[in-house]
Amino acid sequence: MSAADAPGGVAVLASGEGTNLQALIDTAAREGLRDGIALVVSDRAEAGALVRARAAGIPAIHLSPADWSTRAAYDHALADLLAERQITLVVLAGFMRILEAEVVQRFAGRMLNIHPSLLPRHRGLGTHRRALEAGDRIHGSTVHFVEPELDAGPPVLQYRIAVQPWDTPGRLAQRVRHGEHFIYPLAVRWWLQGRLDCTDGQAYLDGKPLAAPLVVTRDMAPIPG
Q1: What predicted TM-score, i.e. pTM, was given to this entire model?
Q2: Peptide bond before 120: cis, by omega within 30 degrees of 0?
Q3: What number is the average pLDDT over the span 33-58?
């Protein structure tokens, strides 16, 4: 499903500081994206993402896992909230919870994530440390549609940089994050414009299947992967 098929807004789910959320907020304000960000939800009351959302005048909700007896109950409550708000695109921006498969399927083709590695390499946590330990010469991040299997959904965009001899996990994270703030708003914009779609596990851009993610390098220009 793409934005051309359904009205409504974007919900951002975030657990942390919210730097990718801020990039989305800034892009929406600068470019006047249709719908924009309608809701921000966090599982952590102290999340900086909630502060950023409220500063931008965006409805922000802390949905505490402690209020539900099971992970599944929490996930379904979250999904019900998104449905009640008529959310059409769910954007995971550092949301540190693995959602139930049934919830992911409920938003199939309407949920994006950004992962700090060049998927399928280094799924899960600790990606920058693992990239250095593996001796990777190229590292980066991937925007992908979400499927029940962790970090395994169809990729859309990748930001790639060369790993430098002086890189540490922290330095590498900072350099990768710089590119994330470009590629994530770009993917969301494409979806809102009806250009980006995902059907039956296949991502499409402008009606053409993406056999591989588009690649963005330091000049921030998308090129075929």
Answers
A1: 0.92
A2: yes
A3: 91
